[in-house]
Amino acid sequence: MKKVVLAYSGGLDTSVAVAWLRETTGAEVITLTVDVGGGSLREGVERRALSAGASRAYVIDARERFVTGFCWPSLQANALYQGVYPLATALARPLIAQLLVEIAQREGADAVAHGCTGKGNDQVRFDVAVHALDPSLEVVAPMRVGMGLSRDQEIDYALARGIEVPVTRGFSYSIDQNLWGRSIETGPLEDPWVAPPSDVYAWTVDPSRAPAVPAEVTIGFVGGLPVSLDGRDLSPVEVVDTLSALAGGHGVGRIDHVEDRLIGIKSREVYEAPAAAVLHVAHRALEGLTLTREQLRFHRLVADELAQATYDGLWFSALHRDLRAYVASAQRVVSGEVRVRLDHGQANVVGRRSDLSLYDRALATYDAEDAFDHAAAVGFIRIWGLPLRTEAARQGSAWAWTEPLVDELPVRVADATPADVAG
Ligand code: ARG
């Protein structure tokens, strides 16, 4: 290995990794910092990278592309890992991996590196994505191959080399953040019975301390993508940043999850994802109005598959690509507006409308304008129930395996008297 491009957050681990890579391998180290929003870009990262021994430091603003190329397809698919995690960390990995590959190719580097440990999902995502794009690149993870220093040792290591340390001793969480969400683990969270201490949260207020008056926001969608808030057209990054601040201010978007990592470990994770929480709820509501029952059912399967593949680091797989293409196509009618009320930690849909709505009031109403053909239901039900009547005729009725109920339940009987009949 002669030249390596390191994914550099500017935090303690990767700052130490710059020096460690140079000292133990003798390779030239170039750092790449990707701004994925949400405060992920630290002050003075270039300066810190160079002071740690990098020969060149890249910083790339990928916020817009992160939203449009990664968060949006995931939102369109309703992809939530294990039904709850909006995948913020998992979605940023393939983007960062792709940029690592591109910078490595531009610099003529023979390797890329990242600061992941050998226990998490992120190492898998980086390694697999890099090799899907460029199998010739070596991937090095110092934390996996000998850099195993404790937090305090890392601080000492950095101080001994004059590397400015961006942290304080004793701080106990591992945090990853981008504009789609904030992921917090370790420290007191490692006991799944312990309620998350209030200092794990940075983007959301305690729901019990949220403003007394709920807020309402109208989200405009075109083709399954949010394009406006309260009638104002916004860029993708603005939509997410604006909703994040608004919903976070009402305590929306806290997730406390014991999740199954790809490498077989259960782990307790806390997430803050106010914008994702609101957008997911709103998007599903609009799908409910504009897609058929069969599409909605199929989408639940696709959502699970896409979430799993994203989580498992398979963004650049053929399956993932083809599922995204299906979802994008299925979104062509998911246009309209959704009203969401933000109230003490809850994001509740209170209204939805669309020019392409499949909801037909004339069919749904019980009023006089009812246009539904009630008599036609009889024929429909005869055909619908035909297989069960055939079963009963050929194989015996469901009585054969059904417990009688009337003898088991308290029954009250009232008989009509002649007076009742006369009245
Ligand atoms: N468990 C989440 C995931 O695998 C988040 C990982 C967050 N990483 C961190 N250093 N806190 O996507």
Poorly predicted parts: none
| Small ligands present | arginine
What's the average pLDDT?
A: 96
> Can you tell me the CATH architecture of the largest domain?
Alpha-Beta Complex
CATH C-level label of the largest domain: Alpha Beta
Count of extended strands: 14
Label the structural class.
Answer: alpha/beta
The largest sheet, given as strand count, sense and whether it forms a barrel, is: 5 strands, parallel
Features:
423 residues, alpha/beta, Rossmann fold, Argininosuccinate synthetase, chain A, domain 2, 2 domains, 5-stranded parallel beta sheet, 5-stranded antiparallel beta sheet, 14 helices, binds arginine
What would a concise description of this structure say?
The protein is of the alpha/beta class. It has helices spanning about 10-25, 45-50, 65-75, 90-105, 120-135, 150-160, 235-250, 275-290, 295-310, 320-330, 360-365, 375-385, 385-395, 420, and strands at about 5, 30-35, 55-60, 110-115, 140, 175-180, 180-185, 215-220, 225-230, 230-235, 255-260, 265-270, 335-345, 345-355.
Would you write up a description of this structure?
The chain is of the alpha/beta class. The protein folds into two domains: 3-174, HUPs (Rossmann fold, 3-Layer(aba) Sandwich); 175-362, Argininosuccinate synthetase, chain A, domain 2 (Alpha-Beta Complex), CATH 3.90.1260.10. Helices cover 40% and strands 19% of the residues. The protein contains 14 helices and 14 strands. The protein has helices spanning 12-25, 45-52, 63-76, 88-107, 122-133, 151-160, 236-248, 274-290, 293-311, 318-330, 361-364, 376-384, 386-395, 418-422; strands at 3-7, 28-35, 56-61, 111-113, 138-140, 174-178, 181-185, 215-222, 225-229, 232-233, 254-260, 266-272, 336-343, 346-353. The strands form three sheets. A five-stranded parallel beta sheet has the order 3-2-1-4-5, with helices on both faces. Strands 10-9-8-13-14 form a five-stranded antiparallel beta sheet. Helix 7 (236-248) crosses helix 8 (274-290) and helix 9 (293-311) packs antiparallel against helix 10 (318-330). The protein is elongated. The mean pLDDT is 96. Bound molecules: arginine. Arginine (ARG) binds next to helix 4, strand 6 and strand 7.
